[in-house]
Specification:
383 residues, alpha/beta, Rossmann fold, Dihydrodipicolinate Reductase, domain 2, nine-stranded mixed beta sheet, six-stranded parallel beta sheet, 10 helices, 17 strands, 31% helix, globular, binds nicotinamide-adenine-dinucleotide
C-alpha cells in the first residue's frame, strides 16, 4: 500500500471532513494507496488545534502555508480556504510540485481560474483536481453508467441544481461566503455551481450560451458584533443554457444554484430526460433513483433503492444507505486512485478536472454578463 503524505491548508469544515475520511481509510479494502495527513495549516490556531488533537499523524502545525509547501515530507495538499485565496495558494502549491486537491470554485473568478490553469500548464508533473463529491452517490453513479451505455437516446432536456435555504433567515450572521471580496462576484454560482456542472460536463455536454437571472434577496446581515454588514453576493441564480453533446444535437440545460430555496437543506439534484430513457435523483431522498425506460407502450417511472453500491468498493453492506461523509470518502478514493493509476475507475467516478472547473468559470462569467445586460450571452471557447 503506497502512502501519500498530505498537508491540509485551511482546517475549517472541509479540512476536517478530509481528516475524518483519511481516518477511516480501512473502509476501502481494495485501495492500493492511502493518504496520511502530516501537516495542518490554518489562519487561526483554533482550527489547527482540532487537527493536533484528532489527527495523530500530524507533525507540522503552522499558520503559514509556505511552511507546508517547504516540507519535503508533504507530497500532496488539500487546500480548502476562502475563494479569494485560491489562486495564490493553489499556484504556490503547484510551483512547489505538490499534487493538489483544491476546493471549488478553483479560483474566485475567471482571471484567477486562468492563472491557475497557466500554472498547471507549466507543471504537468503535478496532478490537480477540483473537489466535488455528489457524483459519488450511488444513484448518480448509476446515471453515469447509463450515460456511458448511451441509454438515454437523444437528450430532450437536463435540469440540474443545488439548493440551500438557511439564508431565508435574515438574522443569520454574515460570514465570508456572503461577502463578495472573499467569496467572489459569482455569489451562489461560485459556491454551488461546480457541484452542479460536474456530471453534465463529464457527460460531454457543453453550454453554448446562457440566459441568467440572478437575485440579491438579502442585502445586509448581522455582523456578529451588534451591527449590520453588507451582504453583497447573489443568493440565487437560474441559468438556462443551450447545450450540445457529441451527437451535435442541442437541448435546454437548466442550472440552478440557490441559497434561498425554502425548505431545502442541501438538495443536489439531476434530471435527464431522453427519448429512450430518463432518470432523476436528488440528495433529498438519497437512496432513491427514478428511471423511466421507454420501449413503446406505457411510460412507467421505476423507483430503485440504491443502497451502498459504491464506485470504490466499501466494507459497508451493499443494501445499506449512503450519506455525505461516505461520498467525501469516495471522492478522496477517486483523487488518489486517479493520481496513482492515471485514470479514474470509471468515467463518472473521477474528481472534477481543472478544465471542467475552467469551463464552469466561463459559464458563470457569461451568466453575470447575461444578467447585467438582460441578454443571451455566448460561452467563450466552448466549441
Ligand atoms: N466540497 C464541498 O462540499 C464544500 C463545502 C463547503 C465549502 N467548500 C469549499 O471549501 C473551501 C473552504 O470552505 P469551508 O466551508 O471549509 O470554509 P471555513 O471558513 O470553514 O474554513 C476555511 C479555513 O481557511 C482558513 N484560512 C483562511 N485564510 C487562510 C490562509 N491564508 N492560510 C491558511 N488557512 C487559511 C481559515 O482559518 C479556516 O479554517 C471553499 O473553497 C469552499 O467553497 C466545499
Amino acid at each position: 500500500m503506497r502512502t501519500v503524505r498530505f498537508g491540509v491548508i485551511g482546517c475549517g469544515m472541509m479540512g476536517r471532513e478530509f481528516a475524518s475520511a483519511a481516518a477511516r481509510w480501512c473502509h476501502l479494502p481494495e485501495m492500493d494507496i492511502r493518504p496520511e495527513i502530516v501537516a495542518a495549516c490554518s489562519r487561526t490556531s483554533s482550527s489547527t488545534d482540532w487537527f493536533a488533537a484528532n489527527v495523530p499523524s500530524v507533525t507540522q502545525v503552522t499558520q503559514d502555508y509556505l511552511d507546508v509547501l517547504a516540507n519535503p515530507e508533504v507530497e500532496a495538499v488539500y487546500v480548502a480556504v476562502p475563494h479569494n485565496l485560491h489562486a495564490e495558494i493553489y499556484c504556490a502549491a503547484i510551483a512547489a510540485g505538490k499534487h493538489l486537491l483544491g476546493e471549488k470554485p478553483f479560483g474566485i473568478d475567471l482571471p484567477a481560474s486562468q492563472t491557475i490553469g497557466a500554472c498547471l500548464a507549466q507543471h504537468p508533473e503535478v496532478f490537480a483536481r477540483c473537489a466535488s463529491e455528489f457524483p459519488f452517490f450511488p444513484g448518480v453513479q448509476r446515471i453515469g453508467h447509463m450515460l456511458e451505455a448511451e441509454a438515454f437516446g437523444r437528450i430532450i432536456e437536463v435540469n440540474a441544481g443545488f439548493l440551500h435555504a438557511s439564508d431565508l433567515d435574515p438574522q443569520k450572521p454574515i460570514n465570508w461566503k456572503r461577502m463578495r471580496q472573499f467569496n467572489g462576484e459569482y455569489g451562489s454560482m461560485g459556491d454551488l455551481g461546480m457541484h452542479v456542472c460536474h456530471v453534465p460536463f463529464r457527460a460531454g455536454w457543453r453550454p453554448r450560451d446562457v440566459r441568467a437571472i440572478l437575485s440579491d434577496l438579502v442585502t445586509e446581515r448581522p455582523d456578529g458584533k451588534g451591527g449590520m454588514a453588507a451582504c453583497d453576493t447573489w443568493e440565487n441564480a437560474t441559468l438556462l443554457c443551450t447545450a450540445y453533446g457529441d451527437d451535435g444535437n442541442t437541448f435546454p440545460l437548466t442550472i440552478k444554484t440557490e441559497r434561498i430555496a425554502p425548505g431545502n437543506k442541501n438538495t443536489w439534484y439531476l434530471e435527464i430526460l431522453g427519448m429512450r430513457a430518463s432518470a432523476r435523483w436528488s440528495s433529498r431522498q438519497a437512496n432513491t433513483l427514478e428511471v423511466l425506460e421507454y420501449r413503446g407502450g406505457e411510460q412507467v417511472w421505476q423507483v430503485i433503492d440504491m443502497g451502498h453500491e459504491m464506485a470504490y468498493p466499501s466494507i459497508t453492506g451493499r443494501i445499506l444507505e449512503t450519506g455525505f461523509s461516505d461520498v467525501i470518502l469516495q471522492m478522496w478514493a477517486a483523487f488518489l486512485y486517479e493520481m496513482e493509476h492515471g485514470t479514474p475507475i470509471s468515467r463518472f467516478a473521477g474528481c472534477a478536472t481543472p478544465d471542467e472547473a475552467a469551463l464552469s468559470h466561463r459559464l458563470f462569467t457569461a451568466a453575470l454578463e447575461s444578467h447585467r445586460t438582460n441578454s443571451v450571452v455566448p460561452i467563450e471557447d466552448a466549441g
